Amino acid sequence: MKASGTRSESGQGLVEYALILFLVAIVVIAVLVLLGPQIGTVFTSVVRALGG
Predict the structure, then answer these.
(1) Segment holding 3, helix H or strand E
(2) Could you give the CA distance from residue 13 to residue 29 in angstroms, rounded to a whole number?
(3) Does 18 fall in a domain?
(4) 3-48 pLDDT, tens per residue?
(5) How many structural domains is the chain composed of?
(6) Is 4 domain-assigned?
């Protein structure tokens, strides 16, 4: 009985980590979509400043 309870808690922890990872991924994707063009402009100006 005790091993089965431990397995359930372990599975619950895994699901919680997966949900957190999923939410972080959604936030990162949203930020990249919103700021993508601006970030590209910054990289372009850096490359031009370096002479590339």
Answers:
(1) helix 2-49
(2) 24
(3) no
(4) 555 556 777 889 999 999 999 999 999 999 999 889 889 999 999 9
(5) 1
(6) no
